[in-house]
UniProtKB/TrEMBL annotation:
Domain spans labelled HTH gntR-type: 1-66
The entry's keywords: DNA-binding, Transcription, Transcription regulation
GO MF annotation terms: DNA binding; DNA-binding transcription factor activity
Coiled-coil spans in chain: none
Alphabetized SUPFAM superfamilies for the sequence: GntR ligand-binding domain-like, Winged helix' DNA-binding domain
Organism the protein comes from: Nonomuraea jabiensis
Domain of life: Bacteria
Pfam families: FCD, GntR
UniProt name for this protein: DNA-binding GntR family transcriptional regulator
Amino acid sequence: MQTDVARRRLRELILDGTYPPGARLTEMEVAAALDMSRTPVREALRALTADGLVQPSGRGVVVVALAQGDLDEAYQVRAALEALTAELAATRQREGRIAPADLAALREIAIDTATATTEGRLAEAVRLNRRFHRVIAELAGNSMALHALERIWDQIQVSTLRSLAPPSRHAYVSGQHEELVAAIVLGRPEEAARVARAHVLDTRNITHSEEDQA
């Protein structure tokens, strides 16, 4: 469906910073950029407005970023949801409901994320980090939690693009990823939830610190 294609492509352009916060978009401009008719673009913009990535402005829309207070709240909700999905994933692993290949894939993504971050490949690191957390949410088997997280991840990603930089504590962050993977693989729900919650909140604290130093 053309609307779905337009929504996906426009969402990608917003998330990778091609259209940064504050960028004003019109149906005509987006349709030309995507080489599509205006009807699917119009519907895509409506969907992205509902997702909180853009807001109406005159005859078009503007890409929005969360204010600091709203961003803090987003991280709090993300922490709660990722604690839930980590707990559910560990529970399913303990019950033998996760394939070994899926666990191996999670480990591999954690390693790739750490490597990309260490080597300063920031755009790739962001993409891999997002994939790492999404895989855990997928392993949880809760589609509602995954859907809610997708929206929150999008809003956080757009809101923090301007401060994108190699985390000063990347080894610490990678270590938390390893702890989280281990807790899930060993089937320890409470530990997985604790590590996931701490990881998200620590990520927000690190972001705060680096924004202050900028």
